[in-house]
Design brief:
- The chain is an alpha/beta fold.
- It has 2 domains: about 5-55 and about 380-430, Urease, subunit C, domain 1 (Roll); about 60-365, Alpha-Beta Barrel (TIM Barrel).
- The chain is built from 13 helices and 17 strands.
- The strands form 2 sheets. Strands 1, 2, 3, 4, 5, 14, 15, 16 and 17 form a 9-stranded mixed sheet that branches. It has an 8-stranded parallel sheet with strand order 6-7-8-9-10-11-12-13.
- A hairpin with a 2-residue loop joins strand 2 and strand 3 (about 30-35).
- The chain is globular, with a radius of gyration of 21 Å.
- About 55% of the residues are buried.
- The mean pLDDT is about 95.
């Protein structure tokens, strides 16, 4: 059904600028962007008065774990895409460490088919590198696969690649961006053995960063960067967690870039006393100095993107210490409000946030026709209102696992509306149509 929607009187944020204006959606696309008080070229079927609100491109969360297949008791593509919609995330890229892992064309096609049936927002999937499938990597579709995920630290389902010959084979054959989880698995194993001897079989979570240490991260990241430069491959290092790792990256480097994830921007080791294993993740949250260095790097160019590493577990699976409790936390629904809190704190500007969470993921992966407010682009949009306080309670959580480390936190920005491909999928606290389906993202790598 043909439909034109006018969103008027908003502050539009796009390509390092904020300006008062309006935007016209025609069916799936942005038809017109209007600066100031000018009127649209044609009348609209529906008008949204966005006075006092900011209109942003829908966020692209390049790093999520939606648990399909094999772990759907805690999350699946349907439940977590609903959480994304409620948080203004209109596109996600899902990781391959599922059961079975996404390491064959057949497993990839199965995920794609499930997303067509279940996903409320747009989607892309990583292909997982293993020690055995390196030759397959050269033939992956550059139009349909977002990238190759390389686990250089322990992971699920045989995805660990830490032998030098296997790593060299991955970098030799990869033609798509390599997104690497960098932790030195041998050093982690030695640290875990020492921690068991010192603290018992399941040390308290406060010792997690001793086991998954800053040195384990740095060694692995430095190796990945060296391999990328040696083979001339595009490398994006996921969830940087230390100040020292940041020294391996330079603003504007076309080959090697870095991602920060929300947990490492919000939390540090001091927070274990309050949150316990709810903030246990891999890599571990580390010192306050590390967290502050990551926050500073949001604006100095050493970090190219921000993401969530959304990783839901049942709360029962989060019980125990740093060896028994599951690692990961559900964050996608609160990604944008939490980052906007950092905007209010002066950590970064709203324009820089849009670069990190919308524009730069689109540029990095070659996302076609998304990630910007541009005429002719898909109308993936989020409308947010500042100075609109609300406190997170469990009844607001869309993720199947039903909990969040941010419960009890009072946010200062509210997601009012989310549009995916021009369709209003979230409106003032409610998902509008659970039968709507997003689209598979395409890429021009």
């Amino acid at each position: 059904m043909h439909k034109r929607i006018l969103i008027q009187n908003a502050t539009l944020v796009n390509e390092r600028k904020s300006f008062k204006g309006s935007l016209v959606i025609e069916d799936e696309h942005i038809e017109e962007i209007i600066t100031g008080d000018a009127s649209p070229g044609m009348t609209a079927d529906e008008t949204v008065d966005a006075t006092g609100c900011y209109l942003l491109p829908g966020l692209i969360d390049e790093h999520v774990h939606f648990r399909y297949p094999g772990m759907t008791h805690k999350a699946d593509i349907g439940s977590e895409s609903r959480a994304a919609a409620a948080g203004g995330v209109t596109t996600y890229f899902d990781m391959p460490n599922t059961l079975p892992p996404t390491t064959t064309p057949e497993a990839y096609d199965d995920k794609l088919a499930m997303a067509r049936r279940e996903s409320l927002v747009n989607y892309g999937f990583y292909f997982g590198a293993t020690a055995e499938n390196a030759a397959t990597l050269a033939s992956l579709s550059s139009h349909h696969v977002c990238g190759i995920k390389l686990f250089m630290g322990a992971s699920t389902g045989g995805l660990l690649v830490d032998g030098m010959r296997a790593l060299e084979a991955v970098f030799e054959h990869a033609r798509l961006p390599i997104v690497a989880h960098c932790e030195d698995s041998r050093l982690i194993a030695a640290n875990a053995a020492a921690a068991r001897e010192r603290y018992g079989d399941d040390p308290a979570v406060e010792h997690h960063a001793e086991i998954r240490s800053a040195e384990a991260c740095y060694r692995s990241t430095a190796l990945a960067v060296d391999l990328a430069r040696r083979y001339g491959r595009r490398l994006h290092v996921a969830h940087i967690s230390t100040a020292r790792e940041l020294d391996l990256f330079a603003p504007g480097d076309p080959l090697v870039t870095a991602e920060a994830c929300l947990a490492h921007l919000l939390y540090c080791e001091d927070d274990y006393k309050r949150f316990g294993t709810r903030i246990k993740c891999n890599p571990a949250v580390k010192t306050k100095a590390d967290r502050d260095a990551l926050r500073a790097a949001l604006t100095d160019g050493r970090l190219l993107t921000v993401a969530t590493d959304h990783a839901p577990h049942l709360f029962s699976e989060k019980q125990g210490g740093c060896l028994r409790a599951a690692s990961g936390m559900p964050l996608i629904q609160f990604f944008l409000p939490a980052m906007l809190d950092l905007v209010d704190a002066g950590t970064l500007s709203v324009e820089r946030l849009v670069e990190l969470a919308c524009h730069n993921p689109a540029r990095l992966f070659g996302v076609e026709n998304r990630g910007f407010l541009r005429e002719g682009y898909k109308a993936d949009l989020v409308l947010v209102r500042p100075h609109s306080l609300w406190t997170l309670t469990p009844n607001r959580i869309e993720s199947r696992c039903g909990w969040s480390p941010l419960e009890g936190h009072t946010f200062h920005w509210r997601v009012e509306q989310t549009y995916c491909n021009g369709f209003l999928i979230y409106n003032n606290g409610h998902l509008t149509d659970l039968n709507f389906r997003g689209e598979a993202v395409t890429f021009a790598h």
